[in-house]
Design goal:
By secondary structure, this protein is of the alpha+beta class. It is 18% helix and 24% strand. A hairpin with a 5-residue loop joins strand 31 and strand 32. The N and C termini lie far apart (110 Å).
């Protein structure tokens, strides 16, 4: 083509080219800038999956998926809409409503919407939408079936009538059940605390879970008379899962007069709403026997962020550590030979991890996550299941490489018997620098002992510094459960803080023996409720325990397991503290040195500098009396020094000295003002 021809060509299109470009852009740009849709959503939509043909969100049990089908009982689909920027949230929410979607919540770059699956493409085409996906749900981890008894509910097990899912319910007890209690009460010193009159009265405890089947019939018997329940999942309470009810029963055994708030959830947005409800209702303790995989194991991720926020409101968050010690692997992302396969061992190029061929129901379910939250669109991995050299399943069928979160799941439905199962992780895109990979097996089986990694096997949010993580020991064997997850975390925290009993009894057909860290967690939540009920708020001697106070009390009362590493059990078995540590003299000048029914001995420590910086007259015994007060600050009398040592005074309070009833009192030394509280046991 000559120069003259080119000139004529350009002259001809000088006016029509902009029009043509606009036309092309109208056709191309929506496709170029439209958001992606998770592949499996499109498959489900094509198959027209309905509520009757799809599992419930967050359905518990071995082999269940963290990404269950998003169909609600009314046939609408629940979807997660991820935005390009948070600034687009209002405009995208408005566009969603115009398409007929209900916007349940808006948080930063995440929208929780409910609507018709027929408009998935339209939803993704809204300007500002980056990705449309199924919600990531909570998971109830059951212990490996090879190490623990996991009962199966009878086929005829019935459920109770439930209120509408949108209602808040408060019902007085009306049904008669046999009294079934956790067998751990005596070792926890619960009867002694009850004898003092402390039974959890005035303390509000929240329980979050994926199901509370059967809770209505147990109010006033196995559960307290004050129970308020709300469903945030949209599934309704009749989901056939009673895991949350089992947790609530354990709490009631320990703190029978507490007020229970039951929150049924499935997703992180549900959890956020439940926490806001707890804050409005002044709930002080949260029992959370669930596992999430939305984080890097280092205190990061959306659930860890919620734990941080909840701590700022004063909520005491107690969580199960997880049951993954035998079914977990972690390691740095390395591909030294550049073949795309992540090397799973510290030396060499080995890239496979062996899987035990036995499992709870013949299936395999693995979850992969890494430390890149809240978004990992520039770094992506996939996880595959192999039988020998043959790949039998891949996460890529569910998660394309544009999926924006550091999460993948792969499932194998046991259509064939696997003789040599293993998994491999593939690097798809992005830099491997500073990436830490984590893999959990969910179906109730284990990884081969030679390949598993026990340290760091904590579920989220047990890795958060703002939660109290609870491991499990068998109450019969008084030994640490082999599946109980422990740290250290990715940010070098030693977890769990404490361990509690599992294998205990409940009245539920599905959990006649409640096994796992799920059972251990409510034991600690109930303990905190008792401690808070023993505190006094607003009286002359305000003794309402702070977060650090409660942790100190748990640590002071805990009983370590002999010959078990501290890194696996934390402070030891949970146990209520009934008297201060005699060695606390170094911290507090006035302490309880000896404690028995009808008798208390106090010790006032002296130093050359005096008490509280005041001059101490070591000869003025007569002026060193103790004054006694009740919780309202009323003076009850005084007690002179019984004997003195070289650096202390002692006071013996005996039965008959005062007309004390069972309860908490305060002693104050006159000259120094040193004060301590004590329990009077008759």
């Amino acid at each position: 083509m000559g120069a003259e021809t080119v000139a004529r060509f350009l002259a001809r299109f000088r006016t029509t080219f902009p029009v043509a470009l606009l036309a092309i852009s109208m056709w191309v740009l929506p496709a170029a800038f439209a958001g992606s849709v998770q592949p499996l959503l499109l498959d489900l939509a094509e198959d027209e999956v309905t509520a009757t043909s799809a599992p419930n969100l967050g359905e518990a049990g071995p082999g269940s998926s963290v990404l269950s089908a998003p169909v609600l009982p009314d046939g609408r689909w629940r979807l997660l809409v991820w935005l390009e920027t948070s600034e687009a949230s209002e405009s995208v929410a408005a566009a969603c409503r115009e398409l007929g979607f209900e916007v349940r919540s808006v948080h930063d770059r995440e929208l929780d919407v409910v609507g018709s699956h027929e408009r998935l493409r339209d939803l993704a085409d809204i300007p500002g939408v980056a990705y449309v996906a199924r919600p990531l749900t909570a998971f109830v981890p059951l212990p490996p079936v090879s190490t623990a008894f996991v009962p199966t509910p009878p086929a005829s097990s019935a459920t109770v009538p439930v209120p509408p899912s949108s209602a808040e319910t408060q019902v007085a007890g009306r049904s008669a059940f046999g009294e079934v209690e956790t067998e751990a009460l005596e070792t926890m010193r619960v009867p002694e605390f009850h004898a003092l009159g402390f039974r959890g009265a005035g303390v509000r405890v929240g329980v979050v879970d994926v199901g509370f089947d059967g809770y209505l019939d147990r109010i006033g018997t196995e559960l307290p008379r004050s129970v308020i329940a709300r469903d945030f999942s949209g599934q309704g309470f009749n989901v056939g899962e009673s895991h949350g009810t089992a947790c609530a029963e354990v709490i009631t055994d320990i703190a029978p007069e507490c007020e229970l708030y039951l929150a049924q959830i499935a997703t992180t947005s549900d959890l956020r709403e439940a926490l806001e409800w707890f804050q409005e209702e002044d709930v002080e303790v949260l029992s959370h026997s669930l596992a999430w995989f939305l984080g890097g194991g280092d205190g990061t991720g959306p659930v860890a962020d919620l734990a941080t926020s909840a701590a700022s409101t004063g909520l005491q968050w107690v969580t199960s550590s997880g049951n993954f010690r035998q079914s977990y692997w972690e390691g740095s992302a390395r591909d030294s030979n550049g073949d795309g396969w992540i090397e799973t061992r510290s030396s060499g190029s080995e890239s496979t991890v062996g899987i035990s061929p036995t499992s709870g129901n013949g299936s395999l379910s693995l979850v992969l996550s890494w430390n890149r939250w809240p978004e990992s669109s520039d770094v992506s991995f996939q996880i595959d299941i192999f039988d020998g050299a043959v790949r039998v399943a891949t996460s890529e069928t569910t998660f394309d490489n544009d999926y924006p979160f550091a999460f993948r799941q792969v499932d194998f439905d046991a259509a064939r018997t696997l003789t040599d199962p293993k998994f491999r992780v593939r690097s798809v895109k992005g830099s491997l620098d500073d990436i830490r990979l984590r893999v959990f097996r969910l179906d109730g089986g284990t990884l081969l002992e030679s390949d598993r990694v026990e340290a760091g096997s904590l579920a989220v949010p047990a890795d958060s510094p703002w939660t109290i993580a609870v491991g499990a020991y068998g109450y019969r064997s008084t030994s640490l459960e082999s599946f109980s997850s422990h740290g250290p975390t990715g940010n070098d925290l030693m977890k769990p803080e404490v361990i509690a009993a599992d294998g205990v009894s409940t009245s539920l057909a599905r959990y006649p023996r409640f096994v796992g860290t799920s059972a251990a967690c409510p034991h600690v939540a109930g303990t905190l409720a008792l401690l808070l009920s023993a505190s006094v708020e607003g009286a002359t001697f305000d003794l309402h325990w702070s977060r650090n106070d409660l942790r100190d009390l748990l640590q002071a009362g805990a009983l370590p397991l002999e010959e078990e590493e501290e890194s696996r059990q934390g402070w030891g078995r949970v146990r209520l503290v009934l008297e201060p540590d005699p060695e606390a003299v170094a911290v507090s000048p006035l302490v309880v040195a000896r404690h028995a029914p009808g008798s208390v001995t106090f010790r006032l420590g002296l130093t050359d500098r005096g008490i509280y910086g005041r001059s101490s007259d070591l000869t003025g015994d007569a002026s060193r009396s103790l004054d006694f007060f009740d919780s309202a600050g009323r003076w009850l009398g005084h007690l002179p020094v019984t004997r003195r040592g070289d650096d202390h005074f002692e006071y013996d309070l005996e039965r008959g000295s005062f007309e004390f009833t069972r309860g908490r009192y305060w002693a104050r030394e006159r000259l120094s003002g040193a004060t301590t509280s004590f329990l009077w046991i008759r």
